[in-house]
């Protein structure tokens, strides 16, 4: 075997073990007995120890040094780019630290869920303090005298920097705030009314998942406290959640996670268990979940179809016609929860979280001051106070599992989705007529062909640019939001 062949064989074994580790995480959030949490933390730490040892194995460096890149095609060079970057990052983090992060975050996730259920911030803060200390140490190791938060961003969006986020967020905020103020000055539209059987919600969500192309032979839909997607290739699972008075929560959480899962299911099978065999970044991943959920799932056309499906499932919804249903699906209203936020306000939630976690990582803010900082920032940004911790600092799972640097990718995904939607509608002029009949294939096929099948072949921004034919920018997203909600609210 050539050095490249040896490296790729080794990498496939590592990728297979990573999938096993991911399955442990899926099990923990769906069906694991509550009493197993401490043991699972040790299992996760042991698995991370094995994986870290493989990532820093000196043979990886030897193979990389021995490979003549000019002998490889574009795919081979892309594989090397990912492997070299991951190897260099892994060698900066001590094995002890990597395993300890896995162990502590596994425990912290359970403690967070308990604290959220009880609205008890004090129950969560001690273990969060451990997580933050460990992640600061890891970030410093990765940064190698550079900016720690920039180093953290590379785990989720390679090539992104805090300075670039400042520029993007600065461009987004004025128009988003102006649109929100104009919309909220209008009368609030009617929403759905009634109680919606949670078993029916799950059955309908599984049907809608398949409408959007999710392959149930290679996946499944379960319930979790915080919806997520897990896995890649031939085993890609999603979770959703239900609320008896809010059927949209389940439907749109499902569509969102199907966007993630479809990306993973649609990567070229030739890339299976290689660095190219999964989404290239979380920003690009979020572009898929957000375009499925919003530009497609919340479109006037698709909601015509969904209105009929929901009436068949539940009977009367308290809404007179498809137009009223479309407005209810896209209703802008005051609220606290990011995952339930409308398109107009969603990115303002992300700006809040990104600023707070950057302060936390830089030590400008300490864990014990986190709730006060959150509440003050929310009041300043949204104009009303947080009523309880589960609607504030305890609402998101991300910090409990150490995902510092992840939140900005949600807004990057929205920006990318705006660009993709513009290109998609240019290329598929009859899209709305098809969506009104519940036919999503013209859109999902376009996304598969132009983006999803390529997996990690290109860098994140290049992936979007190749699909759209232009460099990504915030303009298409802002134009889309102003046109859509200007029409709904008569602005």
Automatic annotation (TrEMBL):
The active site is at residue 257. GO terms for molecular function: metal ion binding; metallocarboxypeptidase activity. Keywords: Carboxypeptidase, Hydrolase, Metal-binding, Metalloprotease, Protease, Zinc. Binds 1 zinc ion per subunit. Zn(2+) binds at residues 256, 260, 286. Its EC number is 3.4.17.19. The keyword Cytoplasm does not apply. CDD domains: M32_Taq. One of its GO terms (biological process) is proteolysis. Its cofactor is Zn(2+). It holds the Pfam family Peptidase_M32. It catalyses: Release of a C-terminal amino acid with broad specificity, except for -Pro. Broad specificity carboxypetidase that releases amino acids sequentially from the C-terminus, including neutral, aromatic, polar and basic residues. Belongs to the peptidase M32 family. This is Metal-dependent carboxypeptidase. The lineage of its organism: Bacteria, Pseudomonadati, Pseudomonadota, Alphaproteobacteria, Rhodobacterales.
